[in-house]
Write a structure and sequence with these properties.
CATH superfamily of the largest domain in chain B: Phosphate transport system protein phou homolog 2, domain 2
Number of domains of chain A: 2
Strand content of chain A: 15-25%
Shape of chain A: globular
Shape of chain B: globular
Helix content of chain B: 40-55%
Number of helices of chain B: 7
Oligomer: heterodimer
Radius of gyration of chain B: 18 Å
Largest sheet of chain B: 5 strands, antiparallel
CATH topology of the largest domain in chain A: Methane Monooxygenase Hydroxylase, Chain G, domain 1
Helix content of chain A: 40-55%
CATH class of the largest domain in chain B: Mainly Alpha
Strand order of the largest sheet of chain B: 3-2-4-1-5
Distance between the termini of chain B: 52 Å
Largest interface: A-B, 56 and 57 residues
Number of domains of chain B: 2
Strand content of chain B: 5-15%
CATH architecture of the largest domain in chain B: Up-down Bundle
CATH class of the largest domain in chain A: Mainly Alpha
Number of strands of chain B: 5
Structural class of chain A: alpha+beta
Order of helices and strands of chain A: HEEHHHHEHEEEH
Strand order of the largest sheet of chain A: 3-6-4-5
Distance between the termini of chain A: 33 Å
């Protein structure tokens, strides 16, 4: 899986792509944010471009929740690919956290700045720690330590569940956007990832259209997931 | 006497543990967003419950390890430890929330389109919540929303039970998927600051 392409698919309004390369951070296509009305943040030497810290922090927090769900799904369904995806995403969150920390640190000029910045550091760190914990969960699968089938079944049946299914040809979901699907299924679910042509698309946007053979990972109430699965798997 | 299905029991406890760990983090984040010590203190209460669940699970795994098999037993222990560390992180975040804390502009995430959103509402006479039990809201099923705390007469109840009935003038803190929260936002009375 090409790391950069899957990230680009995932990035929505913030348009933030961070790629760590030779310890330099390269930012593509995002607007810079000025801290307290001052000049945009700049890093020394190899690093040239400012970071949209707000977008990065939002991404870190969003992703951490997503990663946790995916890691649980990987254990419940004993799915190695999902588990590997979790590890990839976790290292992305790590990079983002480092970037945020670096940029914020450089902007601190006095004690007031420091105490005001503390919550941002903490919020980023918590999300980072959640991702780390999720990675540990995913490693359970990667080490081949699968849970007994009966336990996995019991976990599949809970109130809020994660479901995985494939969109079949002629199903009602094929060709419809995520947004449209909410019209007939309701809003009690969330699509957390879709696998299409060997690539994972994490957290697809509302405009995303389902296609035949897509593998959909969804989280929601048992009812909503059941309905969504019915629309996705059964022919019209 | 037939022993209860250990897999069902562990499955249920694991699910509960994950829920509580998540709520701990949600309370910490929303405490931060609203600069509310009251809300953030809920993270501490949740963390205590997470600890109890962890202990229960550990005991269960040890007692009935043979039925589970070594692999499963070990995997469950690892799951429990990871979930506990998540709630621990949430608690640490909550500990830095204070009323004087000025929200850093970067943290003004309430305005951003986060996937998991928070909303503080006041229950007035037109409210959908009025006189309903948590279980009757059916929120989780239809809207992907969860009531994470309710403030009544100055006191917070965190992660209220299904039987909890919401009354007029209650402050309700919800978290959930963006689509559901946006729907609620339009219908209900939003509160900016929970008075401490």
């Amino acid at each position: 899986m090409e790391e950069e392409t899957s990230m680009q698919l995932r990035v929505r309004k913030a348009q933030l792509v961070i790629k760590a390369e030779n310890n330099a951070l390269i930012r593509e296509g995002c607007s810079c944010v000025s801290y307290r009305g001052g000049p945009p943040l700049r890093l020394e030497s190899n690093v040239t471009q400012p970071l949209n810290v707000r977008a990065a922090l939002k991404e870190i927090i969003d992703l951490s929740g997503l990663i946790l769900d995916l890691s649980f799904a990987s254990v419940i369904y004993d799915n190695t690919e999902l588990a590997k995806e979790v590890l990839d995403l976790e290292s992305h969150v790590d990079e983002l956290t480092n970037a945020v920390t670096t940029h914020m640190s450089l902007a601190i000029r006095d004690k007031d700045d420091a105490s005001e910045s503390l919550p941002v550091f903490k919020a980023a760190n918590v999300a980072d720690q959640i991702s780390d914990a999720a990675a540990e969960i995913a490693k359970i699968v990667l080490r081949g330590m699968s849970l007994d089938t009966r336990l996995r079944e019991s976990l599949m049946e809970s109130d809020e569940i994660v479901g995985i299914f494939r969109i079949s040809r002629e199903s009602r979901l094929a060709g419809h956007s995520l947004e449209n699907s909410r019209i007939f299924v309701g809003v009690g679910f969330d699509i957390i990832a879709v696998k299409r042509d060997f690539q994972w698309i994490i957290n697809p946007p509302d405009e995303f259209e389902f296609q035949t053979t897509d593998v959909v990972v969804t989280r929601g109430s048992a009812d909503a997931v059941k309905i969504l699965r019915a629309f996705g798997e059964e022919p019209k | 006497m037939k022993r209860n299905n250990v897999f069902r029991e562990i499955g249920g406890l694991l699910r509960e543990l994950k829920d509580k760990a998540e709520v701990t983090v949600y309370l910490a984040y929303s405490g931060l967003l609203y600069s509310s010590v009251g809300i953030a203190s809920g993270a501490l209460k949740m963390e205590e419950q997470v600890d109890e669940l962890r202990l229960k699970l550990q005991e269960l795994v040890l007692e009935r390890g043979e039925e589970l098999g070594l692999r499963t037993a070990l995997a469950v222990m690892l799951l429990v430890e990871s979930l506990e560390s998540i709630s621990d992180s949430g608690m640490k975040l909550a500990s830095i929330v204070s009323r004087e804390l000025e929200t850093h502009p970067v943290l003004d995430l309430a305005e951003e389109e986060m996937e998991e959103q928070y909303l503080l509402l006041e229950v007035d006479r037109d409210s959908f919540f009025l006189s309903r039990k948590i279980r009757d809201l059916g929120f989780q099923d239809t809207m992907g929303i969860r009531v994470i705390a309710v403030k009544r007469k100055g006191r917070w109840t965190f992660d209220p039970s299904e039987e909890f009935r919401i009354e007029e003038r209650d402050l309700v803190l919800v978290s959930g998927y963006r689509a559901g929260i946006e729907t609620l936002e339009e219908a209900e009375k939003e509160v900016e600051v929970p008075e401490e």
